Structures are given as C-alpha cells and as structure tokens.
Amino acid sequence: MSSGLYKALKGMKDIMPPDIHIWQDIEKKAREIFASYGYLEIRTPAVESTSVFIRSIGEDTDIVEKEMYTFQDKGGRSITLRPEGTASVVRCYVENNLHGLPSPQKFYYMGPMFRYERPQSGRFRQFYQIGVEAFGSSRPEIDAEVISMLAHLLSGIGLQELHFQVNSIGCEKCRPGFKEALLSFFEGSFDELCVDCRRRYSQNPLRILDCKVGRCIEIRKGAPSVLDHLCIDCRDHFQKLLELLEMLGIRYTVNPEMVRGLDYYTRTTFEVTSENLGAQNAVAAGGRYDRLVKEFGGPETPAIGFALGMERIVELLKMTLKYDLPAPEVFIAVIGERAGREGVRIVDDLRAGGVWAELGDWTSSLKSQMRRADRLSAGLVFVIGDDEIQSGHVKWKKLADAATGEVRISGIRDFIIEGKQA
Predict the structure, then answer these.
(1) Domains of the chain by range and CATH?
(2) Distance between CA 271 and CA 286 in Å, rounded?
(3) pLDDT tens track for 346-383
C-alpha cells in the first residue's frame, strides 16, 4: 500500500526524534521550575462543552466565531476541542471546589489545543501549550511571581534575546471610560476599519487595538492610552508590579496597545516576543482574569496565568542550539549463538540498572554490528564470543576516542554504573 494514501491532516503534524527530545527537555525544565514555585500539575479533558469557551473567551472573538473546532455529539450536545487552556482549568477549579484549598492555589498544565486557522510558521491547527494558573491573590506580588517564573523557564531552556511587554487594561470600574474614549476616537474612521473591527466597534472596541490588519494599525495611531484611564487601584497595582519587576531584574517595555485577544483579561497583561520569529513573534502571553471564576459560578476569585506555545519555543531553540539524538550507552556485539544468548542476559541486566543498552545480531557479521554501533553513536562497545565467555573477560572500546580496556563479564553492569557516577 502506498504511503502517500494516508497523510496527517493539514495544520497537524507528527512530533518525532530528534525534535521530540527538545520537547521533552522543555517539559522537564518546566516541571522543575514550576515545582520550585509550588505549582501542581492539573490535567483537563481536550473536549469541553462549547459553552465553556463562549462564556470565557467571548462570543465576538475570532476564536469563537472562526477558529473553534465545534461539533454535535451523538447526544445532540455542542462540544468543542479546547482552543486554549485557561477556560478548562477555571471550569475544573469551580466544579471541583478547589477554592477550598489554601490560597493562592497554583496549577500548571501541558497539552494540545485546537484552532481552525491558516497554518503558518510556528502555528498549527493542533498545537501544544504549557500554561500556569494562580488563583486567590489580587496582589501584584503574584503577578511578578508568574512573570518571573516565565522568565526563569525561558532562560533555563536556553532562550535569549526575548522581549517582555507589559500593560494594564483596567477593571470594571475604569474600563467603561476607556471604551468611551476609544469609541469617540474611532468614530470618524469607522468606515475605514476592516469588517471585523467595525463589528468590534460596538461589541468590544478594545479589540481594535489587537487587530493585525495594516489599515487598522495605521488608523489606531494616536488612540487614547488605557494607562491614562486607569482608576486609582489599577494604577497603584500596575505601578507596584513594575517596581517588583525592576527589583527582580526583569527587563520590560510598557506597551499600552497590548490588550490581548481574549475577553476575560483584567488589569495586568503581558507578552514575550522574539525578533527571530517574523510576523508571528509571540512565544508566551498571559495576564489577570479576576472575574472569570465568578462568571463560572464560583466565588469571587482573582486569578492570573500564562501560556507558552511549544512549537514556537522549539523553533527558536533549533535556531540557536544544537541538539543531538540520544545515544545508547552500551552496545554488545556478539559472535555466535552462544554469545548471542549471553548478550541477551547482559543487556537485560544493564537495562534493569537504568542503562540504555543495545544488542547486536549474532547472525550478522562483526563488521556489520560495529557499523550499526557507530551509526547509533553508542558510547561503549563490548565484543563477546566463545573465547570471552570461556575466559570470563571482555574487551571494551569507546567509539568517541578509541580508548580500550578489559572487564569481567560479570562486572559489566557495575563498570558502567561506576563510570556514569565518576
């Protein structure tokens, strides 16, 4: 059967070696850093009731209107593949009464998200995110903690030349005044706005500031700044956050136009970008969503979080770092059937001790087995035949530098493990 008959769907891809090892390194580092900050893993379903996302993301957003994978299940219910992680975590938080835990409650997640949009560099229809959510604190210190944790993660995996942008988009007290100022500003240019922004004008004018259409970008130059319309509490919160970021040594830029594309954000918003990614340059983003838990039926609970896109992170790392495929620590080449059986016992013993060991095929020539060991970039090679079994000793060779030596067959496992610890 031709392999061309079956292909991955457009915008969805397989993740294979060597890339998968980069993914695993990122996930490992994320787990280590999140644990040091007291964040616990949470896993939510990839499929939710459609209302979960309409309620949280906003009915007039591009995600809900154009990009969600929404279906009718066999029970006639509208279900959706999750397009982002926060809504599912909030639903879980409320449904399972996690607000009863000591505050702040801090969680992280890893997994696939789904959006039906035009595939492009670093952007897919099935994509993966790592995200965190912290519930129960309205203090700017938790905002700084989340941003600092993100900075440590990105630097910990080797990313450089990143730009942190921060903003405050106010709260329910001060945002109405800012909306009125925006409506007044865009009123004279309404007909020149794109179709989406003309709709946003009446539904959510803040999202005009997030439009990527060139003409809309030009029109909004000189638009009112949200920072000029913050209430005293929001202004104080934002100023304290900036002071904390400076104290922590996190370099940032205040970007008053950054409003984020989801309706649930309040106060702090932030984004991390890279100049090496072209137009789609955001690698991570997040912010505060102090009303969302209550809107899901829970108690009034301030919250903040972020998500980073794995595909873009991997793309950046491949530009700057060299990744090699993992290689077996030991290769056992065997000559003859008796040595082949002894090789099975040895590699099984090594694997039980946590050593990656590969076994040659005794029906193949020694030259062929050594060629395979070389292609695998094995660390140590042992050659076992009848003479070695009779003497109880076997010679080893390091392929990297051609160093050689000898060890008892019964002591191979200890020899390898001691070498790893040296």
Answers:
(1) 9-174+230-320 (3.30.930.10), 175-216 (no CATH), 330-421 (3.40.50.800)
(2) 6
(3) 999 999 999 999 999 999 999 999 999 999 999 999 99
Residue 48 annotated in ligand binding:
no
Is 133 known as a binding-site position? yes
- The CA distance from 265 to 146, in Å, is 15
Question: Does residue 84 have a known ligand-binding role?
Answer: yes
Structure tokens at 240: 């304290």
Phi and psi dihedrals of 64, rounded to 5? -70, -40
Which DSSP symbol is given to 38? T
Q: Does 136 carry a binding-site annotation? A: no
| 86 labelled ligand-binding | yes
Q: Summarize pLDDT for 175-184 with one digit per residue, the tens.
A: 888 889 989 9
Kindly report the pTM of this predicted structure: 0.86
Residue 260 labeled ligand binder:
yes
Helical segments of 117-209, H only: 140-156, 175-187, 195-203
Helix (H, G, I), strand (E, B) or coil at 192: helix
In DSSP notation, 6-20 reads --PPTT-----TTHH
Residue 264 annotated as lining a ligand binding site: yes
Do residues 230 and 242 lie in contact, with contact meaning Cβ atoms separated by under 8 Å?
Answer: no
